[in-house]
UniProtKB/TrEMBL annotation:
Gene source species: Halarcobacter anaerophilus
Positions with a binding annotation for ATP: N196, K197, K198, E199
Subunit structure: Homodimer.
InterPro entries: Bifunc_HldE, Cyt_trans-like, PfkB_dom, RfaE_dom_I, RfaE_dom_II, Ribokinase-like, Rossmann-like_a/b/a_fold
Name of the featured protein: Bifunctional protein HldE
Origin organism lineage: Bacteria, Pseudomonadati, Campylobacterota, Epsilonproteobacteria, Campylobacterales
Region of interest called Cytidylyltransferase, as start-end residue ranges on this chain: 347-474
Reactions catalysed according to its record: D-glycero-beta-D-manno-heptose 1-phosphate + ATP + H(+) = ADP-D-glycero-beta-D-manno-heptose + diphosphate; D-glycero-beta-D-manno-heptose 7-phosphate + ATP = D-glycero-beta-D-manno-heptose 1,7-bisphosphate + ADP + H(+)
Length: 474
């Protein structure tokens, strides 16, 4: 896993667009024609094309600037506004009469029903090429790496590509390209391209059906395009790299694939991010695979953060139960991320020494109040101070592991203090849950949570009674 010891400065050049999603439900067919009627519930607007590469870079924590050409239209103004909100520097040239791309997707029950586009696809004007290249020359030395996102919408003309790649090489700046079309020679001199299998087949004129074909395609692309590194992305199978005369396939692992939209943008962004930090191509590809594994598990054009990538990487090497046990630093970051996702966080705490039906019933009820249940677990030393030297019966690690295995418990955090107040300050839960025996008493953390709820315990179920019963058996 890479370490981010500096914030990289990355320049993106390419086709900017708006990705619009209309989300709704479909419960009937139109009486006018044999088509679905979708009842729109919400609309989502995202930056697309090169904008999705930018969003991925911002999510990773990079400083980003974009060079592009847009139309003098409402969509162009929206692109500007969205870039500003992300804190991205934008040097955008407005070309009169040009339509800024907008792709609208109609979604019914998370499935895409139809997409319709409004855009200009012709090459940008000679004047726009000149102005864009002049801006590039001014800015090149402020950036660690250059990413070209080609969606074949006319910004990256052959003339501009030749000028940009040549000038970048003169200034010792790597150029990474997400290519389009069947003639990759227009990208000659780039450090690497990120074609998928289908794009590589078209450009190399080699049908990739086995390892031999894959190697031939990689070699042909490297030679014809004068690449430093030759790679081909293989969807869920990972990324193939040609190293000297050997092909290595770095596998990716996605828990579930919901949508591959924008996965290529994530690969370009994450490769550029890692390389700009000084890492080699193998480390960069492994990082890109992790990022791609996350975004394909999300609906629509998506991004991944460094924290998500680190957590995902750790999950591949740990059991799913252990992954739910967090420390204070982890839970603070996780809570902030959950809030951004509009998840309702529930918090409760306790010793949970010998787990019994009363505990599980209580926790199940607590989880029903929100989306995510975080459980603060008293450490062994904390339990001793509360219950006496002969407690706990089970160690904190054993208790945390068992609790994490419960379906209703999302995360467990062990705390050593007498109360979980400091932990609650980090989590800032929406709902704080305690037992009904706290009726009329002050509940620690109630001044932080938005709401406090009390839950009645199951009669006759307690750790103390369980211990007494065991002692009687002796």
């Amino acid at each position: 896993m890479i370490k981010v010891e500096k914030i990289p400065n990355i320049l993106v050049i390419g086709d900017l667009m708006i990705d619009e999603y209309l989300w709704g439900n479909c419960e009937r067919i139109s009486p006018e024609a044999p088509v679905q009627i979708v009842d729109i519930k919400k609309e989502t607007t995202l930056l697309g094309g090169a904008g999705n590469v930018i969003s991925n870079l911002v999510s990773l924590g990079a400083h980003v600037e974009v060079l592009s050409v847009i139309g003098d239209d409402e969509v162009g103004l929206l692109v500007k506004s969205m870039l500003t909100k992300q804190g991205v520097k934008a040097s955008l040239i407005e070309q009169k009469g040009r339509k800024t791309s907008r792709k609208t997707r109609l979604m019914a029950s998370h499935s895409q029903v139809v997409r319709y586009d409004k855009e200009s696809k012709n090459n940008i004007s000679v004047d726009s090429v000149k102005a864009l290249y002049e801006k590039f020359q001014e800015k090149i030395n402020s950036y660690d790496i250059v990413l070209l996102s080609d969606y074949n919408k006319g910004v990256l003309t052959n003339e501009l590509l030749d000028k940009v790649i040549t000038y970048a090489n003169k200034n010792s700046k790597k150029v990474l390209v997400d290519p389009k079309g069947n003639d990759f020679t227009k990208y000659k001199g780039a450090y690497l391209l990120t074609p998928n299998k289908k794009e590589a087949e078209l450009a190399s004129n080699i049908k990739i059906e086995n390892d031999t074909d894959l190697k031939e395609a990689l070699i042909k692309l490297k030679e014809e395009v004068s690449l430093e590194v030759s790679v081909i992305t293989l969807s869920e199978h990972g990324i193939a790299i040609l190293e000297e005369d050997k092909v290595t396939v770095k596998p990716t692992v996605a828990r579930e694939v919901y949508d591959v939209t924008g996965a290529g943008d994530t690969v370009l962004a994450s490769l550029g991010f890692a390389l700009s930090l000084g890492y080699g191509i193998n480390t960069a590809v492994e990082f890109a695979n992790l990022a791609a594994g996350i975004v394909v598990g999300k609906i629509g054009s998506a991004t991944a953060t460094i924290d998500e990538i680190e957590e995902y990487r750790a999950s591949l090497h740990k059991s799913s139960i252990e992954l739910h046990i967090k420390n204070f630093e982890d839970i603070e970051k996780l809570s902030k991320r959950l809030k951004k996702q509009n998840k309702k966080i529930v918090f409760t705490n306790g010793c949970f020494d010998i787990l019994h039906k009363g505990h599980v019933s209580y926790l199940n009820t607590a989880k029903s109040f929100g989306d995510v249940l975080i459980l603060g677990l008293n450490s062994d030393q904390s339990v001793k101070r509360l219950k006496g030297e002969d407690r706990p019966i089970n160690t904190q690690d054993d208790r945390a592991f068992i609790l994490s295995a419960l379906e209703c418990v999302d995360f467990v955090v062990i705390f050593d203090e007498d109360t979980p107040y400091e932990l609650i300050k980090l989590v800032e839960p929406d709902i704080l849950v305690k037992g009904a025996d706290y009726e009329g008493k002050e509940v620690v953390g109630s001044d932080i949570a938005k709401q406090t709820k009390l839950v009645t315990f199951v009669d006759g179920k307690s750790t103390t009674k369980t211990i007494e019963k065991i002692q009687k058996v002796k």
